[in-house]
Design the sequence.
């Protein structure tokens, strides 16, 4: 990769490892609806004018139904589930559980008729990653409850489903425009609940800083940089940040918040990371009369979801 590519890759690996820490801090001062609203509204305020300036909103006409569905499974529900789960679960464990997204994505693509073949190596990755998730849910590593873990796993399912919808129904649309409109739609959805649970007093500086960081850095800036990263190094290399983000989340949780680092968490990290790498390895093409055909949109590398 070019020097610029490495800089963008490093920045994205760090930026999308930070939200788990910021969500944990913000959870202590505002309600979940206010937290999610502040994040999506703040990012939409930045990205919508940028999308309008680039003329990307016109291309979205006629796709509103799938945009709404995409926003629901990629932003509206996952950010609700994750923020609620982190009230009872450590940020480091949340980051590790979300690392199972590539594994779930491979399984969903297969179940929904994707063209990807599951080789023995990829099956080993799927089973190894699931073993890591099971290890995190065991009594030795559990620092929350099974309900919170279930919410994070639902978040991971949403993050894995969103790219499938994007690749099959929204592949020809500009990414920045899709992101900006979906964030704006999410802000409208969350506005009533946020208004009803708005804090009666001004939250602490740490909470306000976390909300600002989530909106401006981990969402608005992150998407701008991520689109630049894809343009610089291609979608396949860009998705490798998925394997780095969990390490950043664990390091911040342990180093900043003093969260425990147990042997089970270390072992689960290894299993999930190795499982994600193996499960997402390209499969050898099937030998058919159309063996040299170009892959369709559903077979292209998929971008990781923002945490």
Sequence:
């Amino acid at each position: 990769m070019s020097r610029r590519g490495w800089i963008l890759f490093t920045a994205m690996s760090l930026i999308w490892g930070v939200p788990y820490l910021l969500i944990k801090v913000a959870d202590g001062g505002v309600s979940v609806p206010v937290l999610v609203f502040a994040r999506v509204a703040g990012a939409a305020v930045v990205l919508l004018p940028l999308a309008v300036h680039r003329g990307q909103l016109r291309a979205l006409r006629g796709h509103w139904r799938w945009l709404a569905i995409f926003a629901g499974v990629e932003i509206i529900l996952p950010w609700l589930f994750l923020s609620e789960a982190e009230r009872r679960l450590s940020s480091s464990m949340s980051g590790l559980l979300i690392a199972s997204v590539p594994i779930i994505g491979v399984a969903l693509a297969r179940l929904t008729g994707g063209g990807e073949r599951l080789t023995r190596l990829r099956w080993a990755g799927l089973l190894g990653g699931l073993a890591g998730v099971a290890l995190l849910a065991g009594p030795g590593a559990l620092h929350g409850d099974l309900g919170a873990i279930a919410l994070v796993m639902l978040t991971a399912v949403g993050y894995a489903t969103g790219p499938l919808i994007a690749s099959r129904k929204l592949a020809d649309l500009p990414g920045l425009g899709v992101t900006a409109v979906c964030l704006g739609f999410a802000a409208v959805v969350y506005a009533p609940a946020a208004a009803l649970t708005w804090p009666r007093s001004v939250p602490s500086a740490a909470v306000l800083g976390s909300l600002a960081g989530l909106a401006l850095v981990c969402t608005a800036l992150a998407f701008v940089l991520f689109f630049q990263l894809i343009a610089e190094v291609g979608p396949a290399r860009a998705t490798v940040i998925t394997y780095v983000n969990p390490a950043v989340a664990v390091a911040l949780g342990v180093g900043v918040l003093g969260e425990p680092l147990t042997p089970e968490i270390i072992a689960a990290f290894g299993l999930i990371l190795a499982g994600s790498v193996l499960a997402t390895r390209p499969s050898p093409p099937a030998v058919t009369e159309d063996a040299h055909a170009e892959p369709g949109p559903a077979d292209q590398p998929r971008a990781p979801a923002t945490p």
